[in-house]
Design brief:
Layout: E1 4-9, E2 27-36, E3 38-41, E4 47-50, E5 56-65, H1 70-77, E6 90-98, E7 101-109, H2 115-120, E8 124-125
Parallel strand pairs: 1-7
Antiparallel strand pairs: 1-5, 2-5, 3-4, 3-8, 6-7
Length: about 140
């Protein structure tokens, strides 16, 4: 049996988005899922999930062939395992819900303490906890 790891994705790492290339070779399966937290559209256009018991963020749980490419993913997400307090996101294992079951999965979240700062910078809560990339400007 192949060793497996789980990663919950809600934005640019989801299948169909360019950053998915970082882990596409490791994905064995992708399933719709959600986890607790408040999902924001950050001013730069990508999403940020604030670690909170309030709200829901919808995305996918990816079942990955182990070992997963954590160093490349951590670098992409701005997570420094040696200095998490200075990281944009931190990688945590958290409950993820989908299809009637609960799975523990890694997830990149923004610490709750960062929420006032991202709001002040212009982040917007995403209604329904779902992210879509900004539409391309029409010509």
């Amino acid at each position: 049996m192949t060793a497996r790891e789980h990663l919950f994705v809600y934005g640019t790492l989801m299948p169909g988005h360019p950053a998915h290339e970082l882990l596409a070779a490791y994905v064995l399966e992708a399933r719709p899922a959600w986890t607790a937290g408040r999902l924001y559209r950050l001013p730069a256009g990508y999403p940020g999930l604030v670690d909170s018991p309030e709200g829901e963020a919808h995305g996918q749980v990816l079942i990955l062939r182990a070992p997963a490419p954590w160093p490349a993913l951590d670098e992409y997400e701005g997570y420094d395992v040696d200095d998490p307090l200075r990281s944009l996101y931190v990688r945590k294992v958290r409950p993820v819900h989908g299809a009637g079951d609960v799975t523990e999965a890694h997830c990149y979240v923004m610490p709750a303490e960062s929420e006032p700062g991202i709001i002040a910078a212009g982040a917007e809560v995403l209604p329904g906890g779902r992210w879509a990339p900004p539409a391309a400007p029409s010509v």
